[in-house]
Amino acid sequence: MTVLRARGLGKAYRGRPALEGCELDIPAGHVTGLVGPNGAGKSTLLNLAAGLLEPSTGTIEVCGGVPGSGPEQLAKVGFVAQNAPVYPTLTVDEHLRLGAKLNPRWDAALAAERIGRIGLDPAQRAGRLSAGHRAQLALTLGIAKRPELLLLDEPVAALDPLARREFLRDLMAAVAEHGLSVVLSSHLVSDLERVCDHLVVLVGGRVRLAGELDELLATHHRLTGPRRDVGTLPADQEVISASHTERQTTVLVRTEAPVLDPVWTVGKPGLEDLVLAYLGAPARPVLRVVR
């Protein structure tokens, strides 16, 4: 089952494209890491999925419906925007009561437990909270809504390392208990590596790479050997990145076949190596792992 499907999706602001020709299928029941440099279109994609923006071209379908098309559709999707928006004049408790009124699947017990564990004062106005505590409040509202799909745009950017770990632990518990699907945008690759099993890389408004993380890592190889022209590599070894010293060449290739050339020392890239290679690679059609 696909929780998010985009076909030819594009969004332009004053004629300048933020997304172009986006073709994407995100499977349900996964935690998808959304990675890309600033300006890649990550926030635009999440805002389109939440129904806060309308496409300039193409289509997007979320949880089987058009984003923002009505109360039933809105109840399926939770969204925490990059600046963790809350109402500054409302107290923490008033936020929870508002969440209960607006969301038919509201989990009051989860919200109260999380607020208590974080140490937020229910009587404190949100405008007087620290940036980290405002983010925690916004995250609590998103999880307690019990959506089918939770969209998180840089949710842990304002949190300290301990708070990040606690949030990611709570997120994984929600995924395991309720079959929650998550799309998590973050620059912190170490956090994505801890929780994500699916990956989407956006560069320049286009999907550069998408697939299940284990399969992506299994089909990419780091080759190190004597300096050579990478154009001489077999046709089934797609070169993603290459670097050279006076005597040595290092190449990241994608291939389903084993690398048999004894000249190469073959290693496995980590997630950060993979992401950085695609961020710096020339534009090419999206590469997907199809099961």
TrEMBL record:
SMART domains, sorted: AAA (SM00382)
Keywords, sorted A to Z: ATP-binding, Nucleotide-binding, Transport
Domain ABC transporter, first and last residues per copy: 4-229
InterPro entries linked to this entry: AAA+_ATPase (IPR003593), ABC_transporter-like_ATP-bd (IPR003439), ABC_Transporter_VariousFunc (IPR051782), P-loop_NTPase (IPR027417)
KW Secreted (keyword) present: no
Molecular function via GO: ATP binding; ATP hydrolysis activity
Pfam families assigned to the protein according to its UniProt record, in alphabetical order: ABC_tran
SUPFAM superfamilies linked to this entry: P-loop containing nucleoside triphosphate hydrolases
Source taxon at top rank: Bacteria
Cited PANTHER family: ABC TRANSPORTER ATP-BINDING PROTEIN ALBC-RELATED
Protein name per the record: ABC transporter ATP-binding protein
Organism of this sequence: Amycolatopsis albispora
